[in-house]
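2024-03-11 09:14:02 DEBUG pipeline.ingest accepted 1 chain
2024-03-11 09:14:02 DEBUG pipeline.ingest length=196
2024-03-11 09:14:03 DEBUG pipeline.predict start
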Amino acid sequence: MTATSGAAQPAQPERPGKTDGVCGEFTVFTKIKPGHADALRKDLAALASGSDDAAGRAALRQIGTLHDARHVIFDNDTRFMFASVFDGSWDTYIDDFAKTVIGSHFDTIFSHSEGFPGISDPGVKDWFVAHQAPAKSFVSSYPDLTVQQIWKDHRVDEAFEEVLDTPEFRAALDNPANAELVATPAFQKLLEEAAA
């Protein structure tokens, strides 16, 4: 048996943002630097058009926690909003994105916001917290499913659909030797769900 010390582990600082199950929300409002709205719009268009899409998609896949993200310019080109939904802790979310090409995307986009220190700056989390506005209400349609689980479910569904479309599967269903298995409530439910 190992002894435990009485020393308390440093606690994660309290971060703004609502959660629903495994999902958390992150919404940041900033002031756009005077004269930067068109440059921000251009950078957002380049990001959306996929000029670096392959690397960005690969980084998102590697991180595997981002459900969605959106960027909005508003108030007559004076303010900017970034909002996203992610799995896990707020600090890990920021750290993970800073370590990939997404960090350079953050630098490009937020460089048009007043006071942004840069994604690798030790004070960047404090900057985000200072500009974050937590939702008053946040609801996920699938609060207990992580991005990783959704991807897995999709892969399993695609594989199962391929099996269902084979003549071998139809023959197995029609084989009297499998009648007992096919008649079980679990197997019938599986077939009903596949047909829905």
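2024-03-11 09:14:41 DEBUG pipeline.report The two ends are 54 Å apart (CA to CA).
2024-03-11 09:14:41 DEBUG pipeline.predict end
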